[in-house]
Amino acid sequence: MSNSGTPLVELKDISIAFGGIKAVDRVSVNLYPGEVVGLLGHNGAGKSTLIKCLSGAYKADSGNVYINGEKVVINNPRDARAHNIETIYQTLALADNLDAASNLFLGREIIGPGGFLDDSKMEAETRKIMGRLNPNFTKFAEPVSALSGGQRQSVAIARAVYFDAKILIMDEPTAALGPQESEMVAELIQELKKQGLGIFLIEHDIHNVMKLCDRASVMKNGQLVGTERVANVTEDDILSMIILGKNPKDSS
Amino acid sequence: MTDTSTSKAATKSSQGLIARFLSDTEIDTRLLGMLGALALIWGGFHLYGVIFNNFGAFLTPRNLWNLSVQTSSIGIMATGMVLVIVTRNIDLSVGSMIGVIAMSMGLLQVEVLPHLVGLGHWSIWIIAVICGLIVGTLIGALHGWLIAYREIPAFIVTLGGLMVWRGMAFLSAGGRTISPVDSKFALLGGGPYGAVGAAGSWIVGILACIGVAYIIYSGRKARVLHNFRRRPLWAEALLAFVGWATIIGAVMLVNSYPWPKGIVRQYGTKIGQDLEGTFISHGFAIPVLILITVGIAMTILVTRTRFGRYVFAIGGNPEAAALAGIDTRWVTLKVFALMGTLTAIAAIIASARLNSATNALGTLDELYVIAAAVIGGTSLAGGVGKIYGAILGALVMQSLQSGMVLIGFDSAIQRIVVGMVLVLAVYLDILYNKRVK
Predict the structure, then answer these.
(1) Is A116 in Cβ contact with B300 (below 8 Å)?
(2) Does B300 lie in the same domain as B252?
(3) B129: exposed, middle or buried (Cβ count in 10 Å: 0-12, 13-18, 19+)
(4) At B86, which CATH number?
(5) What ipTM is given for this predicted complex?
(6) Pseudo-torsion of CA B237, B242, B247, B249, nearest 10°?
(7) Whether B62 contacts chain A with CB within 8 A
């Protein structure tokens, strides 16, 4: 994967503060099509906050977002979706009382004749995409609160994938999953890469980072420690970036 | 094993068959529970009358007709309260809003409009109704704005509203009772003239039967189209049959309640005929038809529109709803505005039924409305609630009350019983939910 030309997404000098504490301090990262960029760091390093500026959940105090080289303004999740940015949140952001189809189409319902919701069309579409992502999924009528962790995760993933995402943000997608389901997510990431999506992956597990990511951007205390091509560094290099907040290559 | 024999056997014999019957017909077990409770209350009061008063007054056309009218106002508000509670809010102000809306409509009809358009003018009731709806919607929208955009808890905003609007209702006419209201307006509250008669009731009934058939047919068509699991044909037929039987039964019931002799005589004099001894049916009361219309409209709103879907999404997970791009504040404001509109409809019915507007109208209604919604299965934790449940809940509350009046319990005991039933109903609901999980 050669990173030349215009990046799919570029976050430039993003800063955001909460009550005087700089959660994200002048951070710049970018993402190319067909690339997975891992975002790493301790809890509270600012990874999720940074990414929420891209998904529209927060609004950055300063800094700019460029998509395909063009400056865009993202004020809310709706704006982000309009730029084909889809997010799978760590909390999954599912309405537990609604069924899978209602969650998948939440905010983007299919409207049938007369302006009413076309529930059976939405369920049919949900069955189609779930058939691809998780063929064992059968609980279409139950509220998602009745689903297992892995099933809930696949609903959240289906929601992101269904709407032709160009840019995918995954916040610890495998944290709540068993080994088999984690493997499924890993395969999915590979497949989406092939389709040319750019993926930001927030991940704690260093093995997953080495396996899935092309580049890794490490954050500490709201600042970017550095971005390295995964192929060029060792696990220990990345771990020391996370823990010490220093790029070992800089000191050498 | 044929389908029909299964259905008959399933209702009684074994657990497995009951479960299969319920899953085939897709009947909500909670609905069955509420109908069971209602049957118990109705039968209990009737039996009590038979045993202790030598006359069962409850299961008579007259009492059931009155019960339907009494349920209308609370039932209409309860449908709105479902949405309020589903979004994790509460509205304590609806009773006081009834007072202030009724007073504003009463003053308009009695003291303002007669000077503007002339006494007894045909348009008075229409203007009064429209103004009442506007006042209610605006008050609700004000509550919604304070709750959604100024982030004051709904409990506080509507607790304040409870006092403010009751005070305003008193001040608006210095505590006077405004009476009588416009004669056409009064029809909206029911009574012999405020009912649609035998022929009208049959028309309503036939339309309702067609509606039931259409719902079952179109539901099946959609499932065939997408190749989903269908109900077995016997289950569809059974549902249609039960629906039709209920509707036709209701029509026959309201048509078997005749006008009182005095009203017949009065009506005869008015149209210049001797109607002495004629059997004139009440038919469905207008407020009951309003309740049914509101119930259908609210059910469609909740289950078939984006707005309804968003209300439930917000109740289930407000953060997720916001992240899905839903403008949660705007939806919340609209929910309270809608509650205000429905309260205005209830105020119209309540003051029309009383043929007057008083500042005390609707006192304590908020508690009955909340109780009706909760008994109907609306969860105070948010995210769960059904419109038909709330209407049935209102019917349960009203049945208890009117039953206790019939057998002569005084109001202190009535409150004790209603209070205990509310707590018991919620407890049973919690047990039910635990068992289902």
Answers:
(1) yes
(2) no
(3) buried
(4) 1.10.3470
(5) 0.89
(6) 130
(7) no
In B, which residues are within 8 Å of A120 by CB distance? 222-223, 225-226, 228
Q: Which residues of B touch A91 (CB under 8 A)?
A: 319-320
- A79, A55 in Cβ contact below 8 A? no
DSSP state of B230: P
Digit-coded pLDDT (tens) for B297-335: 999 999 999 999 999 999 999 999 999 999 999 999 999
pLDDT score of B354 = 94
Determine whether domain A1-84+166-174+200-252 maps to CATH 3.40.50.300: yes
Nearest to A138 by CA among A110, A99, A106: A99
Kindly list the domain boundaries of chain A, sorted by start residue: 1-84+166-174+200-252
Q: Which residues of A touch B303 (CB under 8 A)?
A: 117
CB within 8 Å: B320 and A106: yes
- Which of B226, B230, B319 best tests the A interface by mutation, with the highest count of A CBs <10 A? B226
Helix/strand/coil for A234? coil
Indicate the number of domains in chain B: 2
Q: How far apart are CA A10 and CA A50, in angstroms?
A: 12
Residues of A with Cβ-Cβ distance to B223 under 8 angstroms: 120
DSSP structural state of residue A145 = G
- Structural domain that includes position B399: 38-191+285-436
Residue B22 maps to a domain: no
Regarding whether B215 and B166 lie in a shared domain, the answer is no
* Residue contacts between A and B (CB atoms, under 8 Å): 80
The full length of chain A comes to: 252
Q: Is B83 on the interface with A (CB under 8 A)?
A: no
Q: Is B217 part of a structural domain of the chain?
A: yes
Residues B297 and B154 in one domain: yes
- Give the global pTM: 0.91
End-of-domain residue from the set B251, B281, B311: B281
